[in-house]
Automatic annotation (TrEMBL), chain B:
Membrane topology: Multi-pass membrane protein
Family assignment from sequence similarity: Belongs to the binding-protein-dependent transport system permease family.
Sequence intervals crossing the membrane: 26-47, 88-113, 172-197, 229-251, 278-303
GO cellular component entries: plasma membrane
Keywords tagged on the record: Cell membrane, Membrane, Plasmid, Transmembrane, Transmembrane helix, Transport
Protein name as it appears in the record: Permease component of ABC transporter
One Pfam family recorded for the sequence: BPD_transp_1
CDD domains attached to this UniProt entry: TM_PBP2 (cd06261)
GO biological process: transmembrane transport
Annotated ranges, domain ABC transmembrane type-1: 85-299
Amino acid sequence: MTHWKIGTAALLGAALSVGSAALLAATPLFAQETVKLELWSRQDPSGPLRPGNVVKAAERLNKELEAEGSPKRVEVAVRESPAKGFDDDALQLLKVFGIGEGPDIFIAAHEWICAFQEDGFVLKLDDYIAKYPQHFGTIFPSLWSSAKCPDGTYAIPQDAEARMFFYNKKLLREAGYDAAFVDAMPERALSGDLAMDEVLEIAKKVVDKTKAQYGVLHRPNKGPDYIMVFQAYGSDFADPETGKLLLERDKLAAAFGWFERGVKEKVIPANNTAMEFDALRKEFYTGNAAFWMYGIWDLGSVAFPTYGLPQDEKAFFADWGWITGPAPQKGGKPVSLTHPIVYAIAADTKEPELAVRLLGHASAADLNTDHAVTTTHLGIKPEQLEDPRYAKAWPLARATELLKITKFLPNNSQFGDLNGIIFAGIQGIESGRLSAQQAADFVIEEASSTLEDVIVK
Amino acid sequence: MTTIADELTIERRGHQGSAARRRTNFVIFLGPAIILTVLFFVVPVIIDITVSFTDLSRSLRISEFTTEQYEKVFRTDRRLSQVIGLTFIYVFGTLAIFNVTFGLILAITTTAIRNVSGSFFRGVWLLPRMSPSVLYILLWLWAVSPTEAGLVNQVLMQAFGLDAPLDLLTSAPIALIIISNGFIGASMGMIIFTAAIRGIPEHLFHAAAVDGAGTFATIRFITLPALRWPISFVTIYQTLSLLVSFEYILLLTKGGPFYDTTVYALYVYRRAFESGQYGYGAALALFLIVIGVIVALIGWRFFDMERLLQRPRIEVH
């Protein structure tokens, strides 16, 4: 019996030790933990890789985690919002956060980031950015200012772009301007020699002397491009010392005056704000308008694929071109506006470290270049300039010139609301309901009564 | 043999039974309506009043209870007087031109012609009401498009030799919102008035004809007096409906150009949902509720609706 007992014990012992070894070997497999990170992104055909790059970044992060021997793996779930613009999207997301259903990561227009910061919805990133220089160290320093709120950095720049006045060279030549004049316009605008009113003059000549119906067209809804005109006339909308919203009556009236003159001269259509976005683009790209105030990405998103504008640099510049926002008067300062989109992380995410690392990978030069070259947005890192694909995408290189004079929208949580009021002012002028002075008064009255801490000068 | 006392007891039991039955009937027949009224009218009003005394803004958080929103309504909102004036023009215009007058004309004309033709034309006028609002407004947007492709411009330019296309959305936006809403609103009046006209005893028309009454005299002395009550109902109902509806305006003009077609209900929507000022929107909405109740009470009194609800005024044979 004793013999049997020893045998059984030996067998049991062997089985146990083999089993334990197998179990130990299999432990990482069983203990692997999937961290689901939800990403909020607006359905936006002009930037599908903004969320797409985060999804791709998860693969890279997971490899990195595996190499580190970490049991964690990241899975990204994209939650798309059907908002028609970044302003609507931000308002929607603020509500979602308000009811405690916020995502872990979100994509937003930079000027909204402080609205999230004020309500405590977004994670402060300064320490993380310092901790991961391999991811964030080379991002253009100028772009970081678009991600800052008064007490620190709350977002990671995802892209940049340049806003300009596109123009139809063929129409200008038809109107009687010689080729040398037409081709020199970008340089003259950049040096401050071509003023805002000259744009109206040129546009008027085009409307009078050619079949083109429109002189200058701009977006039909609230957005950043027309703010460029206000910046040209000196309004930056933020007090540099306090960061509060700043409205200067004379400067506002001067900018509104440009729109007023444009409508009076029948250069800007009175119903510009009632037209559809696509209809406006069609008018410009099919040769029915001299100027179109918009952004560089419109080439890649619409002009090339939809209206067949030449993709070859030389062929494009033969009949088309762009100028920066001109100076208010000859010899003044020209302007351009960039409107970075940013990645941000929710303050209450359970895995902030992983979210930061994920966005670090999503900001990799190659992935960001994928986004830049496919949607004609500017990159965020100098190393992207060396990428042959980036160099080949000539609109990017050419638009980068404008970054020398570019400005941002103010990172004030109420700027979105103020912009709505400014847009209503433009609509009031163009439809003949307000004069430039009345529009300036309207903006000040409306902003003072509905927004907080507005400084009026 | 039953005594008087027994009979009394039986009768009392009977009464008790009918009282219980009345209570049961009340719960069965009125209970659902009461629950719905409380859920969809009383509770929202209470929520609206509560929100209007808070600083609820875009992140849906309340940090304090305050009367700030009412101060804004009374002191600082300079747009409000324009919005109220426009709302009056819109409601009165749509009601007077289309919902009552045009509805009445449609009812009288379609009942005066052959039944088949009348039904056909009534069906045509019902089409806008049956179409989804987005589709209906898309057709309007095409009709009034400021380009040569717009239907109105095609007609004006080709048939009447107009030189340049008209931009009605910019030059006549108030007329457009009245007409687009009116085309839909008229059909409700049309149906109710048609039913009422059909209910007028036919011998009255024959008698009038024998007495030598012409068409207008018949309408004035027979049809219109019989329609007093339906007209009252349509007026009050459509006034309230126009006061709070704004979807067609939002789709057609977005309240613009500038604030030209921003009626009160749309103004509340823009403040609350486009600017994220929910507390302020709630305060504004409360005034809309108050205005609605006042209008309903005035209408009730003015048209003496109490009598209407007491017994039918149109004899049905």
